Fold these 2 entries.
Entry 1:
Amino acid sequence: MADISALGQTVTYREAVAEGIARELRRDPAVVCLGEDIGKAGGVFKTTQGLFEEFGPGRIWDTPISEQAILGLAMGAAMTGMRPIAEIMFSDFFAVCWDYLANEMPKIRYMTGGQITVPVVVRTANGGGLGFGAQHSQAVENWTLAIPGLKIVAPSNPADVVGLMASAVRSEDPVVFFEHKGLFASKGPAAPADHVVPLGQAAIARAGTDLTIVALAVTVPMALAAADRLAADGVSAEVIDLRCLVPLDMATVLESVGRTSRLLIVEENPYQGGWGGTVASIVADEGFELLDAPVRRIAADCVPLPFADALEQQVIPTVEKVAAAIRRLMAY
Amino acid sequence: MADISALGQTVTYREAVAEGIARELRRDPAVVCLGEDIGKAGGVFKTTQGLFEEFGPGRIWDTPISEQAILGLAMGAAMTGMRPIAEIMFSDFFAVCWDYLANEMPKIRYMTGGQITVPVVVRTANGGGLGFGAQHSQAVENWTLAIPGLKIVAPSNPADVVGLMASAVRSEDPVVFFEHKGLFASKGPAAPADHVVPLGQAAIARAGTDLTIVALAVTVPMALAAADRLAADGVSAEVIDLRCLVPLDMATVLESVGRTSRLLIVEENPYQGGWGGTVASIVADEGFELLDAPVRRIAADCVPLPFADALEQQVIPTVEKVAAAIRRLMAY
Amino acid sequence: MTAVAATDDIGASELLALYEQMAVIRRTEKAAHDLFLAGLVKGTTHLAAGHEAVAVGASAALRPDDYVFATYRGHHHAIARGATPEECLAELMSKATGICKAKGGSMHLTKASAGMLGSYAIVGAHLPLAAGAAWSAKLRGSGQVAVAFFGDGATNIGAFHEALNIAAVWSLPVLFICENNLYMEYTPIGSVTPVPNPAADRAPAYAIPAEVIDGNDVVVVAAATARAVQRARSGQGPTVIEARTYRHFGHSRTDPATYRPAEEVQEWMERDPLDIARARLATLGVPVEDAVRADDRAAQVVAEAVAAARAAPAPDPADAFTDVWADGGSQWRT
Amino acid sequence: MTAVAATDDIGASELLALYEQMAVIRRTEKAAHDLFLAGLVKGTTHLAAGHEAVAVGASAALRPDDYVFATYRGHHHAIARGATPEECLAELMSKATGICKAKGGSMHLTKASAGMLGSYAIVGAHLPLAAGAAWSAKLRGSGQVAVAFFGDGATNIGAFHEALNIAAVWSLPVLFICENNLYMEYTPIGSVTPVPNPAADRAPAYAIPAEVIDGNDVVVVAAATARAVQRARSGQGPTVIEARTYRHFGHSRTDPATYRPAEEVQEWMERDPLDIARARLATLGVPVEDAVRADDRAAQVVAEAVAAARAAPAPDPADAFTDVWADGGSQWRT
Ligand SMILES: Cc1ncc(C[n+]2csc(CCOP(=O)(O)OP(=O)(O)O)c2C)c(N)n1
Ligand SMILES: Cc1ncc(C[n+]2csc(CCOP(=O)(O)OP(=O)(O)O)c2C)c(N)n1
Ligand SMILES: [Mg+2]
Ligand SMILES: [Mg+2]
């Protein structure tokens, strides 16, 4: 693997995924990767490019199209001394191995009274906006939020990818790691050496005083763009990058809302059952007295994702929709 | 099947399930049932008792332990002229056939531009409180709420079971029908003949003026009991039985909150990602000006469900917890 | 170049019609490829050039009211069942006239009115659906059969196992036709499967009869399908057919398929299903000009389809909010 | 009454020890049954009385550091691997001293310190886990093997297929041991499976060797397991063992199992694994008093276990909020 950790260098999110994995593979011989086409082919999104060449077939395992086996193998190996990183190619395919994410990995420690530890990372390409249609475009981070016992990571930029991957792999608990398809080509500063971002710490991606925007993964750059656009109108928006859904850093959100008194949540999953509902309900309870305006959510509309760009843009969050929501909220 | 439709008779929720299915089987020859042990054995919860005897093996099909096949068969048959009622024995097992609920049934109409119709009902025993442990006790109605394209029904009493079953089977859209394990033995008035409860209409289970409690399935009797208890203290609580999560009758909820200005949501699924978050966020947005107090949610704690009664009661909603929450909310 | 047996009972004019269908598919796939490169097709495509004989041969043995379920690599099945190249290409080009109103895209071509009940993009998911359609046919006593086409890679996923088992136990009129093109995306099926024929070698686990056939010979495919259809319609239950074939393009989009050895590619290119059909036509005494004319007609159909699809309007943005429910809308709350 | 071959190479004292283990299991199950009827065990139980020889025979062929994965019907596997009747019964009785701190219950008995890595209540889910543990052993070069015990009904679920396939392809040191007790819950396996031996007849689909054995003869089970372990440890990959057995109680709780024909029940009761072991002991020249004494010891162990479990304290309610995360707690937000 090329060394992309040199300071000041700019890398893609895609490269950061491979880099983040490579660093952990180098650090700990118990780390091992498995998934479909992740080896010689370097992954369908090229997010495992170079790993097979550097680490060989003993560390990087190509599997059949057997998602239950992939996650079952990963869990069984994690229970017995390894630290597997399993790839599920598209997050939509969680649906064919959901039992491992919903009933096995998150519950075994609890139901054995703490006897079993499952240090596994499940990586997946999440989200829409690329015209892949209803079965290859979903943002399903909210599926995993419904399951107590999973840690949930969804980075928005290359340095966070590396830093959060380090924490995910070192976590003794199962972690779902959402890599956003719409961000793979995006660029940002490379992570410094030994970069570790702890799980459960939101970042203030943009400081502001007039309203708080809570965002995750692809909606972070979207919120930042909208905030920049509104700055021209004199609106000072604070953008919080949650980075994780579990642990969920509500302290940072509530502190921000305490300063701004307005909250807009921007999430890519559908409105019905979306993670923003959980955040909104906490604020509507614990932050009720902080609010000067309704809590608003921009989420995907409650329809399957259409193929055509022109239709998909109608359904998923966009900079325009966020900007319009900011305007409406500031006008309240 | 015994005729339990005589007016004034009292029946169990369990009997109502079998009765609701039987009425539809009698009415429409396209209705057919499939699932594990639903035939001669009458179902592990005895909710299909008598069906095999009345309708025979051509209408009531025992399957292997193949949940993907069960839902796949049901969907394929629904696409081609039948109206299958599929049973998934415990709702936890949705995890082994989630693809059909998440990616296939709810999306095929949309992604074919309306060419295909899937009139299928997926019945399942949902919920906890019986000491069945982490993998047989979950309330997973929120899993389905995350999926646009599914209708979601969860009756709280025998008459509604029959009336909503009629609507579910007659629906041209896929319906997930949650039968609550904790309610099977509960009793209520039998449904009158030809009883049909439309999908998406909440019921005011108890009228009140001081606060609105939104409940579903097992939390309805829980909320009613808590409300009765608080009545002694002079609190007049209104209890709304949502009956369905999709279509979601927010009009009834918002109207009620408009009168009471206080909202408590009681849901059995875990707080994180629970359906109450969606309801709370709509009220915190569209009903912001109606509220005189924080929106509160009583939900399961964010842990897997423990086996021991004494532990499980710590985790799931109880009458005591609801009563305490009412008190706190009225004291705000 | 290609040796064919002259013993199969298919007439010259019928074979010529099948050849023309294959030519239409080949040219449609080429057009899709070019339009993708030109940026006019977005998202992804999985082209079936090379697989034409499977779709056309199998469809030739089916009744119009039979059911077909395909994968994301399903253009050939849609066209073989009667979808026009124009409505398919319009779909790929995100046009309002697309076969799924531009809501499905390349991976979900569907022509329900012709019994082509969808293209599914979750590997293996449609095998139980085909079993379900077959169960429905059995319940209704309609005499219909259902066919699931799927890739070699699908044989290792759970849904495959559950579908074959239930189809056998309930003796359902369903055909499981595997298009074994030797590769999943970029990984050879042989490296992740412990038996040489991933579909056929599994069939005995369900007491289902199976055949491994030359999937590049449309006559062989039609004959094997006809035998399986005959079994299904006469109540003898499911059949597994493993049709060996090869894709001419990469897995999807612009994949150059460099993971395939040059000699292997060469060998299979020499077994082009269109060439094999032409050789068969010659054996049956059909003048070469007839095949050329069929080709020309195919070329013209596809050229016109491209032009019409290009000219077609974009979908109405409001269409994003229709077709969730049977009432036509998408309202989920009051 | 039961005829046994005297040719198996197991010594008298070893067999007596196995017999005593089986007796302990039998009495534990009987105790669990009675405690359930007395209302002291809540929720559900799936008793393994009748299946003792599978657990005890297989465990006899394993190393202490090997891995075992069981189903919700797993009391016998927990005990065979070293869990005490007391900690198991305390678990069933919702006591703080339960093997899983009363958080798991009957369906999830686990003794990780003895390599008994859990009892799983989603049918089939643990087969891939066992493959994963075997993969881990292979990666670490530890020489360990993993065993998944599962029911006949589990052979029709997708995870079975995926687990066997990957185990074969990666040549993993894993044993798939099916306890074929002829029934799923209340439905005979033969009515939903198209092959007579639901596990063994599927093994060729993965090129995995398989045996169908008498699961009620502990010596037969031990010998078959030893052969499979030997293959696994020497790098020859997985084995399927289908052990035919029968449950003495119903499927769960108070199921009277009236769906089973009386003659069938009778026939199997006459093939009680404890009787078979006693007959074998006699053949080996072990005095009948030795078996009686082993039985008495078992009775005493279980009686003491019941008393201790009854006397044990209830769990601390605060325990509901521990053990979600490796840090011991359950905090999911700030
Ligand atoms: C459940 C699932 N896993 C993985 C994928 C990603 N994927 C799409 S096509 C493909 C390869 C399929 O290979 P095969 O079944 O041989 O069909 P082919 O593409 O060769 O026609 C994979 C892995 C998917 N769509 N669904
Ligand atoms: C995926 C799944 N489907 C259904 C069930 C319900 N269930 C529990 S045990 C059982 C029967 C299992 O039969 P078998 O595998 O033969 O094991 P046995 O109980 O006979 O030991 C069923 C259907 C389940 N637990 N998990
Ligand atoms: Mg292939
Ligand atoms: Mg069994």
Entry 2:
Amino acid sequence: MRHEVRFSGFGGQGIILAAVILGRAAALYDGKHAVQTQVYGPEARGGASMSAVIIDDEPILYPEVTVPDIYVIMSQEGFERYGAKAPAEAVMVIDSDMVEARPACRFVEVKATSEARITLGKVIVANIVMLGAVVATTGVVSDAAIEKAVLDSVPKGTEKLNLAALRKGMELVRVKKP
Amino acid sequence: MRHEVRFSGFGGQGIILAAVILGRAAALYDGKHAVQTQVYGPEARGGASMSAVIIDDEPILYPEVTVPDIYVIMSQEGFERYGAKAPAEAVMVIDSDMVEARPACRFVEVKATSEARITLGKVIVANIVMLGAVVATTGVVSDAAIEKAVLDSVPKGTEKLNLAALRKGMELVRVKKP
Amino acid sequence: MSRVEFMQGNTACAEGALAAGCGFFAGYPITPSTEVAEHMAAKLPKRKGVFVQMEDEIASIAAVIGASWTGARAMTATSGPGFSLMMENLGYAVMTETPCVVVNIQRGGPSTGQPTLGAQGDMLQCRFGSHGDYSIIALSPSSVQEMFELTAKAFSLSERYRVPAFLMGDEIIGHMRERLTIPDSVEVAARRRLEPGTLPYTAGEDGIPGFPTFGQGYGVHVTGLTHDERGYPAATNPRLHEKLVMRLVHKVESARKEMADYVVTNPGAEQVFISYGAPARSVFQLLHDRPGEEIGHLRLRVVWPFPEFALGEFPDAKTFLVPEMNLGQVAREIQRHTDVPVIPVPRLGGDLHPPAMLAKALEASR
Amino acid sequence: MSRVEFMQGNTACAEGALAAGCGFFAGYPITPSTEVAEHMAAKLPKRKGVFVQMEDEIASIAAVIGASWTGARAMTATSGPGFSLMMENLGYAVMTETPCVVVNIQRGGPSTGQPTLGAQGDMLQCRFGSHGDYSIIALSPSSVQEMFELTAKAFSLSERYRVPAFLMGDEIIGHMRERLTIPDSVEVAARRRLEPGTLPYTAGEDGIPGFPTFGQGYGVHVTGLTHDERGYPAATNPRLHEKLVMRLVHKVESARKEMADYVVTNPGAEQVFISYGAPARSVFQLLHDRPGEEIGHLRLRVVWPFPEFALGEFPDAKTFLVPEMNLGQVAREIQRHTDVPVIPVPRLGGDLHPPAMLAKALEASR
Amino acid sequence: MSFRDWYRADRLPTIYCAGCGNGTVINCALHAVDTLGWRWEDTIFVSGIGCSSRAPGYIRTDSLHTTHGRALAFATGIKLARPELHVVVFTGDGDLAAIGGNHFIHACRRNVDMTVICMNNWIYGMTGGQGSPTTPRGAITTTTPYGSGEGVFDLSALAVAAGANHVARWTSYHVKELTNAIDAGLRTPGFSLIEVLTQCPTAYGRRNKLREVSDTIEYLKTHAILLQRYNRLVAEGKPVPEDMFTVGEFVRRNRPAMGVPP
Amino acid sequence: MSFRDWYRADRLPTIYCAGCGNGTVINCALHAVDTLGWRWEDTIFVSGIGCSSRAPGYIRTDSLHTTHGRALAFATGIKLARPELHVVVFTGDGDLAAIGGNHFIHACRRNVDMTVICMNNWIYGMTGGQGSPTTPRGAITTTTPYGSGEGVFDLSALAVAAGANHVARWTSYHVKELTNAIDAGLRTPGFSLIEVLTQCPTAYGRRNKLREVSDTIEYLKTHAILLQRYNRLVAEGKPVPEDMFTVGEFVRRNRPAMGVPP
Amino acid sequence: MKLAIDSSRCKGCNLCMLVCPYRIFKEGKEQNERGIILPELDRPERCPNCRLQKLYGRTLCGLCQMICPDQAIRWDDEAKNERQKVEVEF
Amino acid sequence: MKLAIDSSRCKGCNLCMLVCPYRIFKEGKEQNERGIILPELDRPERCPNCRLQKLYGRTLCGLCQMICPDQAIRWDDEAKNERQKVEVEF
Ligand SMILES: Cc1ncc(C[n+]2csc(CCOP(=O)(O)OP(=O)(O)O)c2C)c(N)n1
Ligand SMILES: Cc1ncc(C[n+]2csc(CCOP(=O)(O)OP(=O)(O)O)c2C)c(N)n1
Ligand code: SF4
Ligand code: SF4
Ligand code: SF4
Ligand code: SF4
Ligand code: SF4
Ligand code: SF4
Ligand SMILES: [Mg+2]
Ligand SMILES: [Mg+2]
């Protein structure tokens, strides 16, 4: 089963790191195949940032994202550029602190930024909160895999914080699921 | 009738100028076709210098010299590199001040360098003396043409000297011809 | 009244440029092209033109492009190593649609190779030597007279199509002296000015936008980045890039017929030589020496864009023989366009194909 | 034990070089290749290797060549504009038979074009971009794993044949992350040393002379001028030049079979895709999505020297479809070698051919 | 007219990162050009490639955004072909002094009549933060992960040695002095270099303990020492702190120049 | 061993014109290398393209005759890859300072441990006499038929400004001083430039009233002024004739260098 | 004249804050739709340029405008009848 | 030791003439087969290097050899019994 996950937000939110971690989790710890790509370019500096991960049980042949089925949106502009046209079958995880709009598809709201700032004390882990949320929502990779991937992707000394953020994200979603 | 004239000597003797003047005479004043070529390259500096002129009544198609029928040789090294293999049917005009060897073909000896130095007072016109000699020997261009070509090729103020040199060369040969 | 001279090919090239109204020359000396620059250095200042010797070939072509944007007809001249250095900025000229003429008096390569001997080894380089896809114009003279004429024509084509035009000469023609007739005046197409109110990179049907000369209030932005019709960078829009590159290629390729300039001899022949530049002289000689035989000759004066339809001028052709002073560079292109066997007759080393060599190739191909 | 990573193509390329024993990297940053240099900057110093950022790309390839003469396995990495600047010194590497690996992570051209998007527009440039006639080796990876493997292989081929080897990647593969398995060790051919008593440019049957490493008492003179077997300049001897250039070309072209590296799928097919680099991924997808149909696929991992005999692997071929992220550059080469219709499927703009686009081309060609 | 009228409003905001000094430098340059009364129709901005080199694209005059490092060679062509046009070049430390170093010293030598404004941010900004010829020893960049170990160019000193008629250095903090220096450059016939030390928070600051924009501004403010004062200290044998850099006018002279309008 | 043993006897005589100063400079360089006791097996000569750049081809060591202007970049690769090798570069004014100017200033900046000997004959000799960046104002060359109108590089001053550890200038007349200066360069860790003003009777002298070899030698002899003497004159406010050039050691310092053997 | 920050241009770098001698710019609090926190203006009518630009016919001080790297600071003409409360601080 | 000019290398530039403090080199008269006029030696035994090189074990003066751009000047060992007439000038 091929999943296409699209992450978007603005520069500095760690959109790309989140995507890499997800890809890593799938490819190294879940025995799946994964391709991670991202948008480069000077435009990426100020404005919207985007990265995508394709995860599949079979080898990934065509590596470009066609129709994502999972969206992770962390800014209003990111929503407008990369999320607004999400098809009805998709699922979107939204940082509701940052995004006003809501899509036509199924979506989950996560107050990732404020949770990161207030509960965890570091706004920069909002992306990991989102990652936890998306894994909990979709199960696109296993919990064990994402934990391992987070652990070996974050700077030394920040493992605990990031793990807490990941779990916080999972929890926020699971709480919602009745 | 295609004539191929090969000039050779060492750098500084004006070998190339002589060839250009001959070509000019043919192309501009005798209504013939002419192609002048020369050897380039760092080697040309110290050692032998070579230039060739092809003169024909018809347009010159293939512009490279194949078997010259006229040789103008002004140094021993020039003789060795470019004149030694002259075919029997050729004619060679030799500066006998500079060249020890003699070819198997018909040849005319001209003391061009000493004539230039002693009679004309300027060793640098030895090449023009040779030019006079070759025209007188072969008639490859007309006397009028070569005179005009000399006149418009030499530095201003030296016309007389060069004309004298040209005539001297002609004279030296004509004297020899019985 | 026209003037008659006995002149070197390189000097004739410079004279052709001057006759075509070239007012700016920037260059860097290199054997065997240097005489072009030297003649321009002597002549341009007397005509209120500008000659400047730059610090290298990269700077030379850059200065030429800069000057061209002020409206000047601008040129540089070089040979292999310098030509290689120009590749990046030539791509810039293509992308920005800057008229300019680049003379390459080819010498033996690769690398420093044979600085003083002739070759035609840069024919594919001038076509493909810069990164990315593009098209250019290249002309190859076979005589001193053509050094003059085709240089002037290069200006005409470059100005009209807003694409670099290459005079792909060689040391043999560049260094030989022959009679040259210099006409009183030479007609050269002028670049079309940008209509006020039109966006600077909006092109008409022919794909060629009008030219917004600097200093005339157009306020145009010129960039080597992929740009929209305003000239503004738009380097992440795939379809815009596609459209731009397609237009740049198309404006040249679609004018192949208009630009074509070739000479056909014996169209009924079964064996046909295809030549350009110096080797044409060997073919001339061969045909002259064998008056009885019907041997065809297609001589290209414009090599790029390649006039593939010219092959059709020889409906009975059974073989195309392609003498080149390289390992068969244009022969490769010919092979793409015909089922008739194409036989490269390569000659390396700096001297022309002796006619006997062509005769041998002719026999062998029968 | 081999290591498994989730890695970017560019980083995998650097890892491939390190695995192949690359001890010297000189480069100049340029998008989208910069990560190759950055990874080397981080890794080489820890292995007693040398990383140096030069003042430009001309200097980068020059330093690489210099280092190679001391015996080092040396590499640089760049993209279009920088690649264009390297053309002169690449010719020097060819002429002096200097092993070196040049990575080109292709981006949209011409000129500055699309710095952050992928292309394959430099495939003919790497073959013909320097002046004069010559041959080189070029490899094109289609996955992150191949970025690693083919970089290592590029070293192997370059060392063995003493000719520059190009890793012609593209932004898509260069920037994507995939799983990469790094083996414990990689086998790389070593350059053969010059036998004492042999002249430095005397070549055996394979046309490849032994290598006289600097600093070992060979007292060799290395020049880009045409040279004799002693290595001494001999730039005015036509036949010597001819012989030298023919050897340089021949040693590569005659080893086409030895070097060939391609993957054949469905040899019995009538419709055959030929691909290299990123577009292979689109072809994979198409074939996967249409399991019932017999569609052929020839995937080239070594593009130059072109393995024309590989076309023969598809004896029933009725059309060759060639999807490239350029206007049909390798398609031109294919056209030279076959009477089967060759249909370029060009894609410009930076994104891959969607499989549907290939399907359409397939239908259209039926 | 104000300097703001020289901008292409339809292209703002720029692609520059928040707090990038380039915008400030453009303001100062346009202010100088504007108050001098130059007409935009007669003024050409030229640049190479880099963040700094994007500047001409935001200015409404004719402008040529060329290839990396080559701006001065293109500009030379423009200026020699039409000396009546004013030519101003925007460039960066990488563009001017790494790949473009040769055109730099030769334009100085020829003393071509143009004004070159170099945003020296000690880094390659556009490509994401590699070392440049002005990267300080020890600084961390993506290509000097263990600290830069190469020598550092003094761009102004190079320009003086190479023959430029006018050379000055200021910073993006010193907006008034910078504007005046550019004004002097525009007025001086011949080649003028105005080197501007500029903050690049994204590619340089972030990795070198100057994370906030204000950190670099503070650095520029506190480490600049006026040339005259520096010379006085040296003459008096007094110590000058190692990490200070001189600002001010290094040379203003009248050597023969090329491309000066008749 | 004598310096004569460093030549490839089988390649002599050189292609140089009679009276060309290049041969003298090579003598001095080989003498310095020889007396220092360097082994030819460990010494690499590198050059670009030009008459001067043909020098390595006459020397029996390993040698790399590269592309025009790029010698220093090639040499940098050699030296960084194997610092234990000695690297000496022969170059010309055109090779080093025209097309090669960027590699020149960057090799100085990096202070790569090598010795560069530049035969500055004020002209492009190899290509037949075009102007170079050191061609004096007013001089006639084939590309300046009405007299050169461009500024002139002071190569030594540029090297100092760019960061070289050792810079000296002499002439082909001053064979002893030149040999000593080269010796100092060879000994100094880091980059060393020895600029040698040299006669080119063929391409320069002939057109500039220095027809005889002895004319240029006479010129070099009478117009050289020792740096120390020049400085004294200037300090004393005494006039220095306009057309004199300084010779001597311009700098010898100990900045951090690259490629120094461990 | 009225000092204004163009919210479509400002990137929130706070350089204006660093240079204004009157401390007219204060750190903002609200993120706008582009994720940017604009500085806030503290009694901008204190700015000499607001008060005296018209009078002198040229820009006074102007430091904030000159340093603003995003051309986001401008002075607008005020509606004719708008009152100005000027409090000069020493 | 005996001073000698290698006629296969000398290009006749006369630089040796310019530098020899003993004026041992004189302008030549005869052109050789390559068109070159070699300088002539005037009592070369006066050269200190001829006399004393062996004694000091190193090159003395040597100016001519060092400046000779064509490596044409050398000192040959003399045949054992060859007599030397030394005339030192002051
Ligand atoms: C020939 C070439 N090489 C490399 C590049 C990639 N490149 C673009 S900008 C840049 C560096 C710019 O540095 P600088 O001039 O300091 O500008 P900044 O971005 O710091 O303002 C580089 C290396 C290029 N565009 N062209
Ligand atoms: C890229 C390139 N451009 C130009 C040339 C031609 N060229 C060869 S030598 C030379 C000038 C050499 O001048 P210089 O370094 O002063 O050496 P000299 O001959 O005076 O000793 C030039 C322009 C070349 N070989 N390569
Ligand atoms: S990367 Fe640096 S120089 Fe470039 S826009 Fe950002 S802050 Fe400015
Ligand atoms: S041209 Fe000049 S530099 Fe070259 S060999 Fe002759 S004299 Fe020497
Ligand atoms: S300086 Fe400009 S961009 Fe920065 S915060 Fe102030 S108004 Fe906004
Ligand atoms: S003009 Fe000066 S006083 Fe007024 S707001 Fe700006 S910085 Fe403050
Ligand atoms: S210096 Fe040497 S080459 Fe010149 S004349 Fe004397 S011996 Fe001959
Ligand atoms: S060594 Fe000295 S004294 Fe002896 S011949 Fe030579 S220059 Fe004269
Ligand atoms: Mg910078
Ligand atoms: Mg020189």
